[in-house]
Model the fold of this input.
Amino acid sequence: MASKNGDIPRIGVYVCHCGTNIGGQVNVPEVVAFARTLPNVVVAREYKYMCSDPGQMLIKEDIQKLNINRVVVASCSPHLHEHTFRKATLEGGRNPFLFHMANIREHVSWVTQDPEKATEKAKAIVEAAVYRIQFHEPLESKHVPVHPDVLIVGGGIAGITAALTLADAGKTVYLIERESSIGGHMAKFDKTFPTLDCASCILTPKMTTVKDHPNIHLMTYAEVLEVDGYVGNFRVKVKKKPRYVIEDRCIGCYVCIEHCVYKTPKHPSEFDEGIGLRKPIYIPFPQAVPLVAVIDPETCIEFKSGRCPKKCQKACREIVGRDAIDFTQKEEILEIQVGAVIIATGFQIFDPSRIPEYGYGRYPNVYTSLEVERLVNASGPTGGAIVLRDGRKPQSVAIIHCVGSRDRNYNPWCSRVCCMYSLKLAHLVRERTGAEVYNCYIDMRTPGKGYEEFYEKLLHEGVHFIRGKVAEVTDWTINPEEAGKLVIRVEDSLIGVVRRIPVDMVILSVGLEPRSDAEELRRLFHISCSAEGWFLERHPKLAPVSTYTDGVYIAGACQGPKDIPDAVAQAGAAAGEVLSLVDRGVIELEPNIAVIDARRCSGCHVCIALCPFSAIAFHAEENVARINEALCKGCGVCVGACPSRAISQQLFKDEQILAEIEGLLMVD
Amino acid sequence: MASKNGDIPRIGVYVCHCGTNIGGQVNVPEVVAFARTLPNVVVAREYKYMCSDPGQMLIKEDIQKLNINRVVVASCSPHLHEHTFRKATLEGGRNPFLFHMANIREHVSWVTQDPEKATEKAKAIVEAAVYRIQFHEPLESKHVPVHPDVLIVGGGIAGITAALTLADAGKTVYLIERESSIGGHMAKFDKTFPTLDCASCILTPKMTTVKDHPNIHLMTYAEVLEVDGYVGNFRVKVKKKPRYVIEDRCIGCYVCIEHCVYKTPKHPSEFDEGIGLRKPIYIPFPQAVPLVAVIDPETCIEFKSGRCPKKCQKACREIVGRDAIDFTQKEEILEIQVGAVIIATGFQIFDPSRIPEYGYGRYPNVYTSLEVERLVNASGPTGGAIVLRDGRKPQSVAIIHCVGSRDRNYNPWCSRVCCMYSLKLAHLVRERTGAEVYNCYIDMRTPGKGYEEFYEKLLHEGVHFIRGKVAEVTDWTINPEEAGKLVIRVEDSLIGVVRRIPVDMVILSVGLEPRSDAEELRRLFHISCSAEGWFLERHPKLAPVSTYTDGVYIAGACQGPKDIPDAVAQAGAAAGEVLSLVDRGVIELEPNIAVIDARRCSGCHVCIALCPFSAIAFHAEENVARINEALCKGCGVCVGACPSRAISQQLFKDEQILAEIEGLLMVD
Amino acid sequence: MIPIPRTIKYESDLDHAFREKIMATQGCENIWSCIQCGLCSAACPISIYMDYTPRKIIAMTREGFREEVLSSRTLWLCASCYACEAYCPQNVNITEIMYALKRHAIEEKKYPRNFPIPELAKSFFTYVKAHGRNAEFWVVFRVWRKVALLRLVKMFPLGWRLLIRRRLPLRRERIRHTRQLKTILSNLNGEV
Amino acid sequence: MIPIPRTIKYESDLDHAFREKIMATQGCENIWSCIQCGLCSAACPISIYMDYTPRKIIAMTREGFREEVLSSRTLWLCASCYACEAYCPQNVNITEIMYALKRHAIEEKKYPRNFPIPELAKSFFTYVKAHGRNAEFWVVFRVWRKVALLRLVKMFPLGWRLLIRRRLPLRRERIRHTRQLKTILSNLNGEV
Done:
């Protein structure tokens, strides 16, 4: 039997004992003797550990001395040692794809009780491999170069960290942020737990470094529109939204804002979570990067009526002499080319108005934790004073943990950061107002470096800790002490009684959620989401920042709730993966991909629609589909779907699979 | 007044409003008018935002048009914009160190109530800067090249991950492991939470990849002996302990072990936590990498008496034909040169015999969680059967959380992983034995992706969860039901009663501790430890894998308790930092270092002993101390200590500091 | 001097089969999901009078505190308003569990004595089983006779007013085929 | 029918000053460190008879449940063995807190009635304050007379045997300068 490529197959079969892993259950000498009887088998040997150097040497010597041109190793899973034996085959002087692995450990010795049946099964698997390998052909791995530039989506602390690490390594980085300033959620915080570091004191220097870094192209107020290409070679279209202020000209002097026709700010500031107000032309916060004004067309009179005196523009032109305001600015589409992408788009907070019992939106003194972050922030709307909506200082404050988290009615997951930020807020509230603070929690989750110690500090500050989930916040009072207050009902489960506690202010420790548009981004970059909507890592343990799409990495809270150090570590890890990829410079493509026989292709488009990796494109001139080798992952969907049988898959050709089945059925 | 370097100082003073940050509190025009009156001030200007491009342009233009040769900017903290203005000075055409920054924001406007006093203080600080800058000299930043090779200490999952990332990036990596195989604690686990992935199935391929990687030099059974040098240029001495088996010859065939004079294993296996036994010659576990035998001289008869028939050696020589055993092997000292170091030495478990109430070591059926990991491990000593010491299957098992953690009598910190691994063990015990399992916890801490869901799974499996810390494990029984069992006393704090629960087996969920020799390693690498003994990161939020010693990074549980995904993320981040450093290729040294005037140095050694960075060495030939410019951090300790006044510090010379003080005192 | 009862629990005091029995009741399977957050207790409008909070009843049921649970006032105070269940973050069917516990308490005669609600449930069931239809007068009469005879005397004027206004008919109505009803009911009980 | 007490707690039921008072007592400052792990309850050899476990006493003290705490049997059962304190992972001085609570209970006359230990403490103190020295017979006699008169009658044979064997002397010993002792004691009390 001559193989398709004309040579006569001369097969070597090598059966591994794997110590006693295989040898203890399978009669290896019997398998070897059986292998010798199979067609085209020139030599069959056994060895204690085929993966060891002397084991591999057997293969190399047989190739050279016995002119073996097909190698079958019967041992463990290809996941473990396929690479090892392909290398040995290559070093012996044969194309590495003229090797096939028969798994008689995971598939046989580890899962079969009866040694006799195990031996029979091992024989069948070896015979299948011997039949199959006759049809193997030499294949060449292709190499594609990696573009050294990197795209980072999201300018929160994770995106900033990754950008700086990469830029410091000399790589060109495009950092894209949807808002008008980078900084993300961290920029809104007053202090960070557990050290009570001032958040902007540690973040602002990083933000300005990003702006000043010669290797970073910062694009704020911008979004990714389209992604094309594959690992090492992505083409990305980015939309820059109009700010109606020319970025290069604006110096962030606030003169335009002072001269706006609105004498006082009237519109809820997004950055201040609606606790503060802004004008239609504004700078979101004093440390914004870039420090450039932006006009909100939704509230600007010029955009709504076209009849604004445009005092801001005049002021910029005449007082500052910069003429930076341009009401006719249009969105811009830019195209960039990068080799790798890091997605660091973060989270959104749970909307507590979904829980009517907590009265958020109904009672003015029920706040989200993020609103309170702005309230306690020294550069926030109240200058750091913790006051109720009517300006009074609260004398008692309840902090409700797990709002929207650990709750099957909303989000079943633990949001990981709320216990710690609730403790931080409890500390700040107590420090600045002296109020009685009641923390109502289910389990106190403070498992980080110095976190347990922070919990203890809070205990000592006299904060009340009540183990129980609050059922209700109400203004229905039943005794004089409660009059004019909000009352929480909670079981103090460690005492075993239900309590009604009247407070002036309620802080809802809202959980973290995937961003509502995560699904769109997922589709843009061909990555996956878990059922909850968080971006899915390649492996929860060992590849926490990789995705199933090569060249696309994830970092920070877009992968799941995470505090700042964990997000920063992930960002560093993603940068490390990117550097490893870019420094390697080329990508070796596995040759087990699908190929289209153009003569057979009817141009029906079926495969194009089905390909999960968008690897097939239609070639209009020739009226055929074409597979991008770099994108194809060899999943075989198109092969099965092609009505014209025009597609076949390397290493999984019909003849190879059929021969394997035939071999498997020969032993009875 | 001519400066020391002969030129006439022509000073430009630039006062920043910082929007309203400074301008709202300090009368900036008054400060500018005052600055114009100061000696050698040629020009003084104010600007809304000096850090903006037009602000910087003022400086550049004045240098060129007015021939300014000294620049003072009065604005914010040097942490924020010193770099910005030095760059502007350089771009204007002057040496960047002819610039000085006066901080009138953090030091004045943000901390002073009275605008008048604030203005006076701002004037004083500006005057100080003007006086000081007259004595500034041009300084040159030096550059040192970075050696591209990397040392990783510790071959657990963190070290392995970092090594593979770096090696895949094409860097040469030395991976040093103290034990005879890499794999660390993870290699001992059966399953990993929360996905119940088989630990060795995901770890072993990584381990073999490490071994086969052409860029990784793996050194097991080795320890770091000495470290010398500085970032980019470390010289490290490594001690390779003798295994008495020649690594290159051994093929891990187990023949020597079979032929050992000990017919059956008699010595507690370290890898199996003493639950299993080994011989004096052994391979710690079947997936060990490298798969090489090792002889323990403490238990080997040849080493103890010199009168062993050495059957192992004979078997290796005659049966296997490798002659790999060498009783005369000696330890080897190797010297390697690297540019960066990653320390990933992990943790040790808390020794529960320190808590006599729990009876560990006294009652045979009280186990540590790590012992149970070996017990449930399919390749462990019992083949995965969960049995008591007498071979019985337990019918009831208590798992005690927080053993040695969250306890001021032992370790006050939360060990972060115990809740989850306790749930995992509860699942495995229940799955394999059907026993009643009682988990006694304080707070259920499952804050990770999929962790809360895992807790719920366990609830549904009917595991008992008792919120309460166990006081005592005892064999003193008080009713027939308890006879022959171990009894735990615990308060079920959610019911409010104390319970006595008789069980067959007690699992102590021991916490994580710094390794007992962490202090030695800390000293070797000149890094810091927190009070608890964990290696100290440079910043808990923003630099979690850096240390205060440039070029030395930390990853994984040596920095604090951490689960596998967090350790892997940190390892990736450390690799990212190293790649960033190595790719940069050179290190720019800040020139504000100490310099020794050799003519004045008396060679008294005082500075050498005091230098916290070991940057000063004694030059015996010339009998003087010499400062290594790359190691000096400019802390000034030596300057103050030198009895001969031979040491001065760039940018902090006596004349500069005295002039600054003089200037500060001029305004009254 | 009052006697001091033992409060510590030995495992032999507890009834491990009890939780299995309750869990086996339809609708009570997810008693295991409870994470003891106590929201049910806080949401319960009647928890104001309960000796054990609903959360504690679940914890004790799960751990086999049969005596305490079955003799608890809590079961009989539960108004079946379903507030606990509606808000429960783990979707535990708390009201169903309360019903199952009530049935067990009656079966095992463990309910608190001198407490009208369990007597009412029992009398109602006995009467309906016998006649196929409720008769308020006779059920109420039986309950108060058992629970508080003195109170019955005091209630005579109210009863009389209700009687003469025909709001409390003395007539016992009955349905046809009561035997079939009995069969249905005993089959149901057999299942429970 | 038994009356149904309200079990829910309003903040107005609680005494916020109470915890401050306890915490101000020397040795009780670290009551805040408690993380409610319950080890104290489990370690306590007497918790077998306690109505509230030691952990719960701490929780209730911290939250101002003054009535419940001061009338709890737990305070008087505490044998001061220090087991709780020795093992407490947060090093809370539980025994000291128990003493402080006992003193308050006596001061405010809140201790459980018909319970001998607080009476014993009080009688001992009163007697020693008056005479400077304890006299077992008279102290014990007073306690039993107050707590359980009937029991006193039953104890007569035992008392008689002890008396004739001179194990229970009737003689009242006293020290000199009892007035100075009283001054010392009242100064001390003033401090507490």
About this structure: The mean pLDDT of chain D is 84.
